[in-house]
Amino acid sequence: MGRLLGIAIWIITIASVAMFVTKRWWFPESISDHGPAVDRQFMITIIVVGISFAAAQIGLGWAVWKYRDSASAQRATYSHGNNRLEVIWTVVTAIVFISLAVMGQRVWASLHLNSAPPGSFQIEVVAQQFAWTFRYPGKDGVFGRTDPSLINDESQNFVGLDETAPNAKDDIQVATLVVPVNQPVELILRSKDVTHSFFVPQLRFKQDLVPGMKIPVHFTVNRVGKYELACAELCGMNHFKMKSYMLVLPKDEFYELANLPPAQFLTKKEELMAKYQLPQY
Amino acid sequence: MSEATHDEVHRHPAPKGFIRKYIFSVDHKVIGIQYILLALSAVVVGMLMSVLMRMNLSWPGTKWPIMGTLFPTGAPNGVMSAEFYLSLVTMHGTLMVFFVLTTAPQGGFGNYFLPIQIGAEDMAFPVLNMLSFWVTFVGFIVLLTAIFAEGNQTIGAWFTKLGESAWGAGSGTVGPIGGWTGYAPLSALGKVAGPGQGAGVSLWIISIAIFCVGSLLGALNFITTLLNMRTRGMSLMRMPLTCWAWFTTAVLALLSFPVLLGGGILLLLDRMAGTSFFIPGGEFVSGSLIPNHTGGSPLLWQHLFWFFGHPEVYIAILPGMGATSHILSTFARKPIFGYRAMVFAIFAIGMLGFFVWGHHMFISGMSPYSAVAFSILTLSIGVPSAIKTFNWLGTLWGAKIRFTTPMLFAIGFVSLFVAGGITGLVLGQTSLDFFFHDTYFVTAHFHLVMGVASIFGMFAATYFWFPKMFGRMMNESLGKLHFWITFIGVYAIFVPFHAMGMLGMPRRYSNFGEYEFLKNSHSLVLFVTVAAIITVAIQIVFYFNFFWSMFRGKKASDNPWEATTLEWTTATPPPHDNFAGVIPTVYRGPYEFAVPGAPRDFIMQTEPEGVEVAAGLGERSGNGGNGHQH
Lengths: 281, 630
Fold this sequence. Notes:
heterodimer; A: 281 residues; five-stranded mixed β-sheet; B: Cytochrome C Oxidase, Chain A; Cytochrome C Oxidase, Chain A
């Protein structure tokens, strides 16, 4: 039984490690400036994890293989432990784990402990049960006043824009996130109803949208294309299809769009969606 | 060291009537078995729910005619709806975390064996003990009513009518759909927030609040009993590691459940009394403005919930660690390696567990600075966890292992604890949480470590203590069959979850078909479903073995495993007052196996000094006692 169990543990270990080593199921390709650093930190971590996991399991498998009961009259080793070993493994694991922890703050700090770099393009993201709205400030670069009492989903005023306010006239609300490539983007995240979460896997980024809060986040995308945006916080029955797209445009194409007045913006956006073969959301 | 005060021989007579003896019993042993039976019932429901979830994920849109009959609104025409799936998610999590992982390990085995292992006749407060079980039981019933309340249904037309008359037309789910974490404001808004947010959520909160009360009563009892009722010679450092684990668990429960209780009451007030603890102003829900709430904080709920929720995962697993240490040493025929280090590690895990709740909230909108602090504290909790693993391996090194079923499950526990715990190094880092938060990587991590490893600890405990509890052995062949399929099965289920996490697959999705980035996942999803169905099915063998052995198993002797601690010194099953009026005295540590020169390869804790003296070993009193030396 001991040998069998040892072998079983080894096979499970090999299979589990192989699942990661073969990369058969892996991250989607990164499209953000900070993405490669996240992936690198993951590689370092998963190597430490893999080695520790394999060492512990192989040791366990070895122990049950080697120290199974035999017919011999000899007893087990009488030992209550070894203080030197306790100190060694405590210190070693403490150093390794805490170093990992400190390294694991780098990307986080670069994105969250600094405010958005100057020249970031601001977009407001408003989540609601089961849809996304993205608001662009228009040519003036300033978001107009909003008020929840003005929200009217039927007349497409999803964010409750006060149309009479001075800076509101050129604000645009759309259901697809369009961002420029290679330029910092600052998203201002908020929610109308319950907690949602903004998740674009390729972006290596996720952030909750919390009702009552405005959460600014920033990142830079470095690849043109269309990417799925998913909700990652349980928000009700249709959580699984609270989907939109992030469309990343070359800078000139993006600014051509962003500077258009609302009606033309929407027309242009439709053209772009057809060009990039984006489904309607 | 506390001295027990039972010098004179006196006995408490056992109650005669059936009700006082088996239902409203104040005997900690009966109460322990009641908790175990409660967990055995809850886990069946929880497991069946997980099978339904897997069926829905693997074969979305399939008609299961029987489901249509059982759940006419949740699965119209037999096709499971999204809200039905989410209610399964919620109820599965709640049942498993509260009514399985918090009842059997602590209320069950802890109740039964803590007093016996420290040489006490009962718990410190027997009536309180009875109350804690029955309060918990009421919580369980209330949770089950949540299933029926929410959906104006559900098992057949009879419940449909009952549900309608009691709560009005429901929404067609089988209960609340907020997840076991019940994040506000989704959980605070009521029916307006959509299906599955009505009466079911209120009952869900009430159930958990009741559960908190029951656990608090239990925790007080455990702590008092352990500190005050140890028999003569049972110093703290001579206690079995199980007792240390139950004690630490009780301390965690005492400090964490009140916070959840408070949070639950506030949430209920938000729903029913119009307060705004968790609901901010300006909410616009389902097409209309919510006028009467202002100033609440959704993050407050998360803080309160996780201040409880993180210690809760240790409440679930520490007793399993205790049982594993105990059983490993017994069947390794070798003293536990590093007893003191094990005690300190248990306590370190317990205490650090109160300072890491924020790692559930890195991306919640909480201050990113505090996220850094929580992250570093989180990874440091890996250190005492690693110490435990090293010491378990140290215990097996140079052992003479007897591969009984309880030992197989204890070894399985070590393997699963490592497999599940180690990915905490990934998830605990803020920068990696950007990607992995709320993906299947998280689901993999906590299912392996707090779910399956804890359950393996309980399987080990069941096979180990069953003979003492019921006077009969469980069948070893069936036990081994159960072990092998379950051990391979749980790995087959939860290792692929990591791969899904690598793809970015979000948790709590009733369907993955909407997303391109998940199209590579179908084979994984199907594989897991098949593994889950097989693994769940084999549990029938365990249930059969459990109940069959209770009446037909081989008669057990008083100490069938040749173990050393006090429960093996008394009759099988133990009499009403545990030691038939003769309170044992303890002379040595709990794991004196393979002592050179001793006549047998184990020395009971009650054997007076002298066995080794005769062999010229001097005053060695065992683990951690006087004269402890390496």
